[in-house]
Amino acid sequence: MPRSIQSTQPPLKFIPQRLNPLVLQIVRWLLPIALRFRTRPWLTAGIVRVEAKNVEVLAELYQQFQAGKIRFLLAFRHPEVEDPLCMLYLLSRIVPQVARQKGITLQSLVHSYFLYDRGMTVWAGKWLGWLFSRLGGVPVHRGRRLDRQAIQTARDLFANGELPIAVAPEGGTNGHSGIVSPLEPGVAQMGFWCVEDLQKANRTETVIIIPIAIQYRYVEPPWSKLDWLLSKLEADSGLSPMEIEQGEGEEIYYQRLCRLAEYLITEMEEFYRRFYHQDIPKTISTDESATPNQVLIARLHRLLDKALQVAEQYFGVQARGNSIDRCRRLEEAGWNYIYREDLPDINALPPFKRGLADWIAQEADLRMRHMRIVESFVAVTATYIQEQPTAERFAETALLVYDMLSRIQNTTLPGRPQLGLRETQITVGEPISVTERWKNCQGDRLAARQGVSDLTKDLQIALEKMIA
User: Which pLDDT does position 412 carry in this prediction?
Assistant: First the structure.
């Protein structure tokens, strides 16, 4: 979360991509340190090993790319903030190593351009925009309106750039290694655009999308650290400690999480009833066969909907789509109130108008916090832990609760507690040919839209199978 906004800000300018081989090489040298040790508060770090499967497929694709036979896009999962670092490790170290082992000749740099959320430079600092630019990054505004400059830049790089391009089709992190959030259609659309651009230029390269799954696991199950974290969350919430008998197993962690969740949901329901005048009944209608946990998740989803409504009512935004879609539109609306494109020179405003603009910016920042809370829980389900009661899934859920409490307690989001050393498992999926699909989507706009939808669904299925 960014620092609390106290004044209106000038418009966010586009940051051009300026790949610098020297900067990239320095970052590559420092990469193991950045993965192992926390260099920034918002990085959880603690990654001591990165393993990858099916890498020879990616090595061969780079060979074909460098030979001018294909254009491809890396569609990678985005569960955590470290994912881009792990992708950089994959391309800079693992792919060249596997290529040498398999006798695959790579003639030049193994790297990629990439898209990143323009908002990252707001809360992380301007230095990040400078760095990402030199690493080949293209910033994009998330929201309802199309960021034409960013999309056009990415489209040109996809078709004509010296490197492939990498995009996270989920659009943001969800904190779950075992759940893929609904994919945004942008990756599929970029694939079809690339085919069109090549066809217009009478070029014969095949356009491909490669799904890449990323998952994290602890080297040693951090049960003792998890016990400490749950105790901290209980204390910070004002919930009395739970009496635990010595020798109780993993079930007690599940009971503590459910107890904490029910307490927090009850408190937040009353908060929105009393101070935002939201109609939240004391009970909720569910199927008679619903388990207590399913009822709890139903209450959570209802609460998240109310939180979004509070922000939507303020910004005058209609509630359309799923929770992720609604969050994106609210983020865009909030930025329009804070980063004022209609005020190109805010320093030239008379004090009265500047005061009103600052007032609006402060209010918008506060209202956006309702949306930020929702962002933490967009992927939470009733069965995630029950299906696999692993330390990883307990830790992921507890850390999401930690994020929520931190957002409420503080104006900035402190560094997440490190529960233990982790390993990263990257899986390279089977390539998906966009060129073959493009031939079947010609004729009218309806066929084109259906082609994008079908490709997005198939990419979603591919990523879900890879993390099952």
Answer: 58
Angle at 105 between CA 99 and CA 107, to 5 degrees: 115
Q: Which two tokens stand for residue 124?
A: 């992380």
Q: Where are the beta strands (DSSP E) in 100-142?
A: 113-117, 137-140
* DSSP 8-state class, residue 205: P
Neighbours of 415 (CB within 10 A): 13
Q: Return the exposure string of 189-218: e unless at least 16 CB atoms fall within 10 Å of the residue's CB, then b.
A: bbbbbbbebbeeeeeebbbbbbbbbbbbeb
Residue 423, classed as helix, strand or coil, is strand
Q: Are 265 and 299 in contact (CB under 8 A)?
A: yes
User: In whole angstroms, what is the distance from residue 73 CA to residue 113 CA?
Assistant: 9
24, two tokens: 């990239």
List % helix, strand, coil for the chain (3-state, nearest 5). 55, 10, 35
Give the predicted TM-score (pTM) of the model: 0.92
Does the pLDDT value for residue 1 go beyond 50?
Answer: no
State both tokens at 454.
Answer: 């079908």
Which helix (H) or strand (E) element contains residue 253? helix 251-276
What are phi and psi for residue 216, nearest 5 degrees? -125, 145
Beta bridge partners of 210: 74
Average pLDDT, the chain: 91
Average pLDDT value for residue range 197-205: 96
What are residue 70's DSSP bridge partners? 206
* Measured distance CA(395)–CA(458) in Å, rounded: 30
Give the integer Cα–Cα distance in Å for 117 and 115: 7
Phi, psi angles (nearest 5°) of residue 305: -60, -40
User: Which own/partner pairs from 181-185 qualify as long-range (CB within 8 Å, at least 24 positions apart)?
Assistant: 181/324, 181/378, 181/379, 182/322, 182/324, 182/460, 183/456, 183/459, 183/460, 183/463, 184/456, 185/452, 185/453, 185/456
Between CA 62 and CA 165 the distance in angstroms is: 12
